[in-house]
Structures are given as C-alpha cells and as structure tokens.
Write a structure and sequence with these properties.
Elements lengths: L2 E4 L6 H9 L6 E4 L1 H20 L23 H12 L3 E4 L2 H16 L7 H13 L2 E2 L2 E3 L8 H11 L4 E4 L2 E4 H7 L11 H6 L3 H31 L9 H5 L4 H14 L17 H4 L1 H23 L7 E5 L10 E5 L7 H29 L23 H17 L21 H37 L10 H10 L10 H13 L3
Parallel strand pairs: 1-2
Antiparallel strand pairs: 3-5, 4-6, 6-7, 8-9
Helix pairs in contact: 1-4, 3-6, 4-5, 4-9, 9-11, 9-13, 9-14, 9-16, 11-13, 13-14, 14-15, 14-16, 15-16, 16-18, 17-18
C-alpha cells in the first residue's frame, strides 16, 4: 500500500492492520477530496449555528447532565478544551502502539465522513501525528462504552492541544513537546471539536478488530494443533467425512471438517478402520462441531466490525442539505442528538467471541490432558510424555499451566455486556461496557495463543514417540508437517527433565509467527 486515502466509507480490515503494525508514514494516510468538501461544509454549518445563536447540544450547551447549561459564544473554545482535559481520566497500563495507531486511523476515518463538525485542519493534525509517529499514551481502562470511549479518546485528544503525553521516536513526552519534535504544533479546539474527538466507539472497535484478526489466525491454528494431536494419539479421520457434516449443514462446521481432512491428507500417522477402536474421544472426533461453532463467533465479529469501521458514532450529528438548484437560499442545517456512540453491538460480539476463544482453549487443554495421560490415550503414549516417569515429571506441569489459563479464560468469559452502571447523574443510564469486553477479549486471546502453543509442544513430543514405534519413514499430514518442522528447528525432543520455560516460550513465539 503506497497510500491510504480516507473517505469515511471504505476503510478495510487490511488497511487498519497495515497502519497498526506499520512504520509511521508507511503507508501514508491522506484524505480524499470528497471527504474534505464534506468536512469543510459541516464545519461551516457549525459556524453558522454560532452566528445565529442556535441552541445545539455540545456546541452551545454543556455535556451529559449539563445539557441544559447554555454556553456563551465567548466560552465556546474553552468548553471544547474543558471536555478534553476533564475527561482524560483513564487508568491502567497504556495501550500498545499498534492499538493506538488503529485508534487514530479509525477516529480519523469517522471524522472524515463529514457529520461531526470538525475542521479540516483538526483532522489533518490527527493524520500528521499518525504519519509522523506521534502516538498518544492512552490508558486501557476508564470507558463505559457509552457515550462511547470518552476517557481513552480524551487522552488521545489531549495530545492535539498540547496536553497529555505521547510517544515519539521511543521517548515519552508532554503532548506539546512531542508535536514540536515531529514538526507540528498544538491547536485550539473550535466549537464541537472536543466532543467530536472524544465521543464514539473508536477504542473498542480498534481493540476488537485487532483481536478478531488474531482470532481468525488462532481458529486456523487450532485446527492444525488438533490435527497434530490426533496424529500423535493415533486418531482416525473418519469423523470428518463430508457426508456426516452435510447432514448438519452448519457452514463453518462443514468448512472446518473440510480443513481437517486437508490438513491430515497424506498422513501416515492416522488410524485406519479398527473394529476394536471405531471412534475417538470428543476432543478429536468433535473438532468440526466445536471449532466450527467457534468460527461462527469469529465470523460474526468480523462482519460487525466491518460495518463499524465506516460508521459515524459521535453525537450530536450535523446534517447539511443544499437547497434545490432552482430554489436557491441557504443550506438547511439540522443538529440531531442520537445514540450511535452506544457500544452495545460491539460489546455483545466481543463477549460472544471471548466465549468462543475460551472454548477453543478448553478443547485444546483436554487434548493436552489426553496426550499426557497414559490411561486416557490407551497407552499409545507414555505417561506425561517421558520414558522414565517418576524420576522425570515430563510434561505433567505443562498441562497444569494450560488448565490454569483455561480457568482464567472461563472467568474472563463472564459477559461485560450484561452489566451497566448509570452515569452522569442518571442521564446516561444504560451503558454497554464495550471497551471492557474488548480488553478482556484481548486477554482471552493471549491466553488461547499460549494454550495452543502448549498443545503443539506436547503433540510434537508425542509424534516423536510414535516415530519410535512406526518408523521415521511415515509422513505427517500436509497441514501439520511444516509446524512440526518449525517446532523441531527450535525445540528438541525432551529426553529427560530440564528447564521447560525456555521451550514453552519458543513454542509461543512459533505460534505468534506461524501462518497456517
């Protein structure tokens, strides 16, 4: 991508990922000419409202419970500054740089739609910061998810006026200093701009998008890990027969079964029909049903975020309509208060996705248990994947770690979206907790990433024991041989007890980098 041109209507997943994980200015972000016209028209409408003395929420009134407090024209700029500095009350560790860059891009795209009343110069300053690498320090916690992500977005907006803190070239500076070093200057906010910068679902959308992208990768990797475990456990592919899944036509169940068949094709480690052992345990046999259902949650989150990326989510919104050419006269301006900032759709989707990722972790941990429990795997593999058990504990405590992370994920899967705490003197009397849902989704995804790495670590050990019995001439499936090779390039077969943490970390690094 040489340049991403924002128009408020066509931002994609791929573009957000490119900006989030790219270097400042690579690719560069600009604004389309049509978006510039809309932004300028809406900014002129705000000026017109001020000149006419119109009463408009957030422009000539206070905010939230102060909606009935009229603000004089002389205090309009102070009002906008005050909303930014007073709302910057976030706590907790700051978001990482990719998340901050995603936040900046998504917010700029929303404002480029031309319904928020922000000036073009303000929008351009956001893009200057993005292109030059001025990254606001934004704490993770403090948003109720309605009116959008007020607290974290206020920390973002603070930098534009020279307040708050930002990272630039690896150094954390006061906002004004970071702007100066980047060749920019702080600005004075005009009417409506403070509200436009802080009001909306941008933070939860950014976090949710990045975690949905990770969930897509992890759901694919879960299939690979499950298949490597199946091979280590001498499982059968019969349960993945397409005729079975055609009779329960859930699309992603069918898709998953097809993927499992492809991954295991050409494998010499799977079991042919055995009248003494006609079916596997659920953790192997029901992978299409479980993994497929989890993919439904991933697909729903992806669909929803694609809508939200190009949505206008602040309040109030300003609608400017030109009179018909044959009539003449002034533009018609309407300021309409609504609730597009409410994060309920996102909160529900992120809770659903967290539950799904927790389930992928649960079934993975149960496969780890089967790999390490000699009785459960019918003595296909030795107890705890070690030959001299008793003196050696082998992979016993690796399974403990996976179980611990699964338990944490179960706790984190309690939905945030079913909670609400009234705020702003009960004016904002139902909130979404969407940002909370997004942040805990991130922790669930991080835990799942580790659980899957532990399964692969164990399964590779199991494969090597299988090789001792069936010979090295047997090949793994088309979709498992590469990741097994990647593991063995960095992690040796564990012959006796040794420091396991270094190998677990290596497995985790492989999972983070491996592309299915």
């Amino acid at each position: 991508m040489e340049e991403i041109v924002l128009d408020g209507e066509s931002l994609t997943f791929e573009q957000v990922i490119a900006i989030a994980h790219g270097q400042p200015g690579e690719p560069r972000v600009g604004i389309s000419d049509s978006a510039k016209e809309k932004v300028n028209a809406c900014a002129r409408a705000v000026d017109t409202l001020l000149e006419c003395g119109e009463i408009a929420y957030g422009i000539t009134t206070g905010f939230g419970a102060f909606k009935d407090k009229i603000i004089s024209r002389e205090e309009v700029e102070l009002l906008q500054r005050n909303i930014v500095v007073s709302h910057a009350v976030g706590v907790g560790k700051p978001f990482d740089t990719p998340t901050v860059r995603a936040i900046m891009l998504i917010r700029a795209n929303t404002l480029a739609r031309g319904y928020s009343g922000i000036r073009l110069t303000t929008l351009e300053l956001i893009l200057e910061c993005l292109n030059r690498g001025v990254h606001p320090i934004i704490p993770e916690k403090g948003s109720l998810g309605a009116s959008g992500d007020l607290a974290p977005l206020a920390h973002f907006a603070c930098v534009l006026i020279g307040e708050g803190k930002a990272e630039f070239n690896g150094e954390v500076l006061i906002g004004a200093d970071a702007l100066e070093k980047a060749g920019s200057s702080p600005m004075i906010l005009a009417a409506k701009e403070g509200l436009a910068l802080t009001n909306g679902t941008t933070v939860m959308t950014a976090v949710g998008l990045l975690e949905t992208c990770r969930a897509i990768r992890l759901s694919e990797l879960a299939d690979v890990a499950g298949c490597l475990s199946l091979e280590a456990l001498h499982g059968t592919v019969s349960a993945f027969d397409e005729r079975i899944h055609a009779l329960r036509p859930h699309p992603r169940q069918i898709e998953c079964a097809r993927n499992l068949r492809e991954i295991l094709s050409e494998s010499g480690f799977v079991r042919d029909f055995d009248p003494a052992n006609v079916q596997d345990a659920y953790t192997l046999r029901c992978m299409p049903q479980v993994h497929g259902a989890c993919r439904d949650a991933v697909a729903y989150a992806e669909w929803l975020i694609k809508l939200e990326l190009n949505a206008v989510t602040d309040n109030p919104l300003i609608f400017v309509s030109e009179p018909p050419a044959n009539v003449g006269g002034s533009d018609k301006i309407e300021v309409i208060s609504g609730g597009n900032f409410h994060g309920e759709p996102l909160a529900l989707a992120f809770d659903y996705l967290a539950i799904a990722l927790s389930e992928l972790g649960n079934i993975s941990e149960r496969r780890i248990m089967r790999l390490t429990d000699e009785a459960s795997n019918a003595h296909v593999l030795p107890a705890f994947l070690t030959e001299n058990g008793g003196l050696n504990s082998g992979f016993m405590i690796v399974q403990y770690t996976a179980a611990s992370l699964c338990t944490e994920n179960k706790i984190l899967s309690h939905p945030a979206s079913v909670d609400t705490i009234p705020s702003s003197a009960n004016v904002e009397d139902h909130v979404s907790m969407g940002a909370t849902a997004a942040v805990k989704l991130r922790q669930v995804a991080e835990n799942l990433e580790i659980i899957l790495s532990l399964e692969l670590f164990c399964a590779a050990q199991g494969i090597d024991f299988r090789k001792k019995h069936i010979g090295d001439d047997k090949v793994l499936g088309k979709g498992t041989r590469d990741i097994y090779k990647a593991i063995r390039e960095r992690i040796p077969f564990i012959e006796k007890d040794e420091y396991m943490k270094v190998h677990m970390d290596s497995a985790h690094e492989i999972v983070k980098k491996f592309s299915c």
